[in-house]
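Researcher: Batch entry, complex prediction.
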Amino acid sequence: MAQKKFVVGCFDEEKVLFPAVKQVRTAGYKIKDVYTPFAVHGLDHALGMRETSLHTAGFIYGITGTATAVSAISWIFTKDWPLNIGGKPHFALPAWVPIIFELTVLFAAVGMVMTFCWLCQLAPGVKKHHFHKRATDDLFVMVIECTDKTNTDDLLAFLKSNGAIETDVQVAEEEWWFGTYDKEDNLYNNKQVAL
Amino acid sequence: MASIKEQFEIPGNLKTWSYALIGIGTAALLYGMFTKGFSADEHEQVHFWGTLMYNTIFWTLVTNAAMFFICFNTMAQAAWIQSFRRIAEAISTLVPIFGGITLLVLFYVVLSHNHHIYHWLDAEAVAKDPILKGKAGFLNPSFFIIWTSLTIILWSYFGYRMRQISLEADIAPMDHETAHKFNIRSMTRSGFFLVWFGLTVASTVPWLWLMSLDAHWYSTMYSWYTFASSFVAGMALIALWLVYMKNKGYMELSNSEHLHDVGKFMFAFSIFWTYLWFSQYMLIWYANIPEEVVYFKHRVQGAYKPIFFLNLFINFLCPLIILMKRSAKRNFTLVAFMAVLILFGHWIDFYQMVMGSLMKEHISLGLLDFGILSFFVGVMILMVARSLASKPLIPKYHPFLKESIIHQV
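Model: Structure tokens for the complex:
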């Protein structure tokens, strides 16, 4: 468990966020992540993230499913327990195709969901630090990793000048830990909401 | 948008090539017509008219698929097609031309009572045959002629209306109110086309034109199968023209993002075609009832075996393996190659659908087939190019155009 220092900048519009991401990156800061209420087109590209390999994993799972189905069914129906079904040949490929297909889909789907959860560190009982509660509601939250040399005051001012409506410095756990979110405050409980 | 090339100028070598193809095609057509089409031998007749039939039906359905593509995207208010919709529109201008040829060919076959092609035209045989008698309300010359004419005329008319409304986007910028009305009107017009498309391509027309070649046999998958085949070939044709236009330096607003989505359609509908192919095949194989198996017997175990498996190889395995990767669908060369392969593959598919029923004993694929194909390809190239040159390449005031420009996959 490693605590780390982060600078957090909150933006309320996409068109402010994109130039800010660009500015922060060209200034040489390392963005840990940008938390958004919805999927933002092109943000992964702007952050310079590499293409996900989830689909390659999916292909491998799928092929595994195909191979499992073909080998299992062909062994069962030709070697282990040959049955005469309507006078069809024992090696009845057309009849197997639906099952081969289903197993391919099943392996690929389950495998990809689990890989996705693993990559994102999502599981029951897994807890992570939330940098800003409104990241799931209406704010784009940019989190920048600090090093020993980072001048946080400069960085906060820099974010403000790039349109951040809220900024702060947080020392937080970087990884996940065991825990639940039940007891945490609700989003607007302790706050007077100006309507 | 000053730097955008809006006007397509037909390159000289495109004209030369298309005239050459049309020349070869016309020679093959005339030669075939006089040596086979009007010969006294019924086998020769069936060979010629069957070959002409599958070519003209294939190209009519493929060009009509381009209009279907525009219409369902309009109906879904999808913006991404706007930067290259004029290509699909240009392809769809061929529907009246190829549809007209189809009408002539089918009228000739039906009115000359060529019962070697359509067995149900033989009135004596129908009278003695309980199955054909049961189908006579649908499979009779008058219904065939009325429905076929209506089909071609309404495809052409609704397609024309869609192309006309698209031209309104060239005139002047639209304010919010006008754009909204324009959008609703486009959707209404596309609705007419889509409903008629559903009543024809997705159901009755493949039954009438193609499935009735085996008058006793039927398959509930047949129309969807034909639709999938023609639609994936239509997407391939759009992709091919998109790549061509990009190569010539036009269509600056379309990029690999648009090509990626067109490639996805090619990939997905190849799989969809296989799904229908398999559903039709597997049920008949499994039930093994003689009156159903009759369709596949000579295709899987007889003379058509190589064509049958070539069909599956080109139209399923090749797209599955080659187009699966994201980078492949964004590669102009690879997509162009696959588009040609898919078009050829589905042409072969239509070949075996028609000729596999008409000439069961041997494969007739030869110079006549490729000659007639070259006629249709030549006309297609020439007419699409002309149609592209006749109006601006970008609907520049279309309310969705901006969304299409920033389209990202």
